[in-house]
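In response to the reviewer comment on reproducibility (Comment 2.3), we provide here a single inverse folding case reported in full, input and output, so that an independent group could reproduce the run without further information from us. The structure tokens appear first.
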């Protein structure tokens, strides 16, 4: 982590890392100067939040899997990712590692700085709330790193990432910890957060419900389905599934019915100011700018479109069709036989049309109650309860579909667990499209569902794609490599690279 820490030290506002010859630079702002009271801590927490983003996750998951097809005006944007090109020098390998440790570093600095801040009369609750949010954010960052760089989250003995709850020196180098060791640190942070956080109803700030949602997702990824179901049900009791109108408004940022936590994006913030002119995977931008250059219309520069294999899962009567498919899309009724498929079948991504009159800028949904309902479906399948009108995979899938369709839906029937897991994976693909889940879902559920990346053949035959149609869920590229820059700087990691790289 040496190279990454060095990079963070250069960026951090309140620098505490040692340099090579321990020079105390004149004018250097130290933590004791920067954080002198509760207001400073609250301002610092907002600064930590600005390190958190999802657009890179959205870009990687949608491009590397089967959510997208190359747009009719594509100039080759992210074509390497679309071709499944991934090694230790890839931008995605570096981005998630660097970003994760930058987040951890910022949260840790705030936690440590809080130790020396005096607490005034009546300030203990607000002080605790700041500290609790920082601990929860650090836990979330460690889990995200594990989800990308660990080969198997169900195995506590497998190599994870580097667990960090302190500010390392620039000369420190560490080996990877096991999953079990990293999860132990995550749980310590979550317990601390839960003891400190106050109840709050603002979905854009960390709450105890965020802690529960993170535990639900982690337990699911780890195959601990009993705990996952318990946490998921707790949240469903508090956050009802959005109806059709609420669902539309949720993605216009005017309804929070089923949102447990989201990253707010607003005019003039650092993410909005990053603009639309950056189409690579790693760059900050408005979320919709990972698909179109200027806006969500057919004239807005759609360099990516909805993949045909995903589009074919949408039903016209499903409100998710309206939320995901742009109204100016050109939909070929017989696309397989179209003479000019590229221009006769243009499926516009509409998930991030914009808000506050700013095209392509929308809040980023991190935890929603629909994910919790799908976790219950997954837990039921694991338990063998795949059929039945209640407390089964079929019942939970039907419950979600009933909320999304105009008419009540038929109760599914599965002949075996593989079919049940396949339906869960397909339902997650539709419900959570373009929200950053597909990559992780294929990695952890693909084998059980007998599914991998599977693009429509016509989406694979575009010039420059070179027939990249499919990728089995067992492929090593569903675990990112430790970035080459980190291997060079940290000799402890050189023998710990992930398999296949």
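Designed residues, in position order:
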């Amino acid at each position: 982590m040496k190279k990454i820490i060095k990079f963070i030290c250069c960026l951090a506002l309140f620098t505490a890392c040692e340099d090579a010859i321990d020079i105390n630079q004149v004018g250097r702002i130290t933590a004791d100067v920067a954080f002198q009271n509760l207001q400073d801590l609250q301002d610092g927490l907002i600064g930590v939040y600005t390190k958190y983003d999802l657009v890179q996750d959205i870009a990687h998951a949608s491009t590397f899997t089967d959510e997208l097809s190359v747009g009719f005006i594509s100039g080759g944007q992210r074509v390497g990712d679309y071709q499944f090109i991934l090694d230790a020098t890839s931008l995605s390998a570096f981005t998630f590692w660097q970003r994760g440790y930058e987040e951890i570093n910022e949260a840790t600095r705030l936690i440590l700085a809080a130790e020396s801040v005096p607490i005034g009369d009546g300030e203990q609750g607000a002080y605790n709330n700041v500290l609790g949010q920082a601990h929860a954010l650090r836990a979330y960052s460690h889990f995200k790193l594990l989800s990308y760089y660990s080969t198997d989250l169900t195995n506590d003995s497998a190599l994870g990432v580097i667990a960090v709850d302190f500010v390392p020196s620039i000369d420190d180098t560490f080996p990877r910890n096991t999953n079990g060791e990293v999860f132990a640190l995550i749980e310590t942070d979550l317990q601390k957060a839960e003891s400190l956080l106050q109840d709050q109803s603002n979905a854009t700030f960390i709450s105890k419900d965020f802690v529960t949602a993170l535990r639900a997702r982690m337990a699911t990824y780890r195959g601990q389905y009993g705990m996952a179901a318990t946490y998921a049900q707790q949240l469903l009791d508090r956050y009802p599934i959005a109806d059709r109108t609420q669902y539309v408004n949720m993605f216009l940022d005017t309804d929070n019915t089923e949102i447990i936590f989201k990253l707010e994006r607003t005019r003039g913030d650092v993410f909005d100011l990053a603009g639309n002119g950056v189409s690579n995977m790693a760059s900050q931008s408005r979320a919709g700018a990972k698909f179109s250059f200027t806006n969500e219309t057919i004239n807005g520069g759609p360099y990516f479109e909805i993949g045909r294999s995903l589009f074919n899962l949408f039903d016209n009567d499903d409100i998710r069709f309206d939320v995901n498919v742009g109204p100016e899309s050109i939909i070929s009724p017989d696309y397989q036989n179209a003479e000019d498929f590229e221009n006769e079948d243009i499926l516009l991504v509409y998930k991030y049309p914009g808000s506050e009159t700013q095209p392509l800028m929308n809040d980023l949904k991190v935890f929603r109650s629909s994910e919790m309902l799908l976790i219950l479906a997954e837990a039921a399948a694991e338990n063998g309860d795949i059929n039945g009108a209640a407390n089964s995979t079929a019942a939970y899938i039907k419950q979600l579909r009933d909320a999304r369709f105009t008419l009540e839906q038929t109760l599914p029937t599965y002949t075996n667990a593989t079919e049940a897991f396949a339906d869960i994976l397909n339902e997650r693909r539709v419900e959570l499209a373009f929200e950053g889940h597909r990559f992780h879902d294929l990695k952890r559920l693909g084998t059980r569902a007998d599914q991998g990346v599977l693009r429509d053949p016509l989406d694979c035959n575009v010039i420059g794609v070179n027939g990249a149609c499919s990728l089995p869920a067992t492929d090593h590229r569903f675990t990112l490599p430790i970035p080459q820059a980190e291997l060079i700087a940290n000799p402890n990691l050189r023998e710990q690279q992930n398999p296949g790289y």
